[in-house]
Each structure stands twice: as structure tokens, then as C-alpha cells.
Specification:
By secondary structure, the chain is an alpha+beta fold. It has 4 helices and 10 strands. The protein has a 10-stranded antiparallel β-sheet. Strand 9 and strand 10 form a beta hairpin. The longest helix has 11 residues.
């Protein structure tokens, strides 16, 4: 169901520093798909988070996000752990374990002490492994804990991300 950008989403966009002035603002895009929400992130990308807006705004940790640049075919994976989990700038391989399919290593960089971001977009095969799984576990040796993410809606989320990033 498509919804207009809520005040909470606008606050998130403003807080990330990704929203431009009103006259330069990108078109509004906000869609809920199951427990995921997909929105425009500034003028050059779109993002999908695996938790509903009210829940994510209350506790913005233990989450997965997919960020797709405008014009790109595949998204970057991001994982949001607990504070003090990493050292900002740290680079390592995140272990991604789909419930169906083989695990794979995904290179990430810590953007902060709790947020890691992929260094390259997921390949089509990697995204496909996530999309056919009911859950995905994200962790590995460098992560202090593992996150288990519900990915049952990921096929539809991918469609919305593509539409948003056109």
C-alpha cells in the first residue's frame, strides 16, 4: 500500500543529511510491504528497511537495509547492530546465511560504531539467495552478534526499490 511520506520518515531523511532544500527535493516515495518500508533517500538513492517506521524510529538498531542508487540494478546491503559494536572505518567480511541457499561473505565498512554498509552492490545471485529465503542471518567473526532478518517479502521489496530508483 503506497502512503505519503510521514513526519517520521521526513525526520529520518533530514537526520541522515540526505534531503535537499524544498525546491530541490526529490519526489516523495514511501511504500510499506509487509514489515518492510521503502522510501526515497535524497535525490540519488532509495532505501528499504526491514522494520516498520514506528518501531525503527523508537529503536533504530538490529535491522537490515537495502540501499539502491538511482540507475543501479542491485542494492547495497546495510546492517544496523547495537552501539559500540564496531570501530568506524573498520572493513571486514560480513557472513550472510540465507535459510535456503549457501552462505556468502559480503565486504562491508563500518560507517559508525553500529552501522555497516556494503562496499559494492549485492550481485544478482546474492540478492536471489536472500529473496528465496524465509530468513537471513547476518553476522560472522567480526560482528558481536548475529541478526536474523525476515526476508519473505524481499521479492516485492526488490520491485519497489527498482521502481523508486528509476
Amino acid at each position: 500500500m503506497t502512503k505519503l511520506c510521514s513526519g517520521l520518515a521526513a525526520l529520518f531523511l533530514a537526520a541522515t543529511g540526505s534531503i535537499a532544500s524544498a525546491q530541490d527535493a526529490p519526489p516523495t516515495f514511501l511504500v510499506e510491504q509487509g514489515n518492510w518500508w521503502i522510501s526515497r533517500l535524497g535525490s540519488d538513492s532509495c532505501i528499504a528497511h526491514n522494520r516498520p517506521l514506528p518501531e525503527f524510529n523508537a529503536v533504530p538498531f538490529n535491522a537490515m537495509a537495502l540501499q539502491q542508487e538511482v540507475g543501479e540494478q542491485q542494492p547495497l546491503l546495510q546492517a544496523i547492530f547495537w552501539p559500540a559494536s564496531f570501530e568506524a572505518g573498520q572493513e571486514f567480511e560480513l557472513l550472510v546465511v540465507p535459510s535456503s541457499g549457501k552462505p556468502f561473505q559480503y565486504p562491508v565498512r563500518a560507517e559508525s560504531d553500529y552501522h555497516v554498509r556494503g562496499m559494492a552492490p549485492l550481485t544478482e545471485a546474492e540478492f536471489g539467495k536472500l529473496a528465496v529465503s524465509a530468513t537471513v542471518t547476518i553476522g560472522g567473526d567480526a560482528a558481536p552478534l548475529s541478526l536474523v532478518i525476515d526476508t519473505r517479502e524481499l521479492d516485492e521489496v526488490g520491485v519497489w526499490l527498482d521502481q523508486c530508483a528509476r
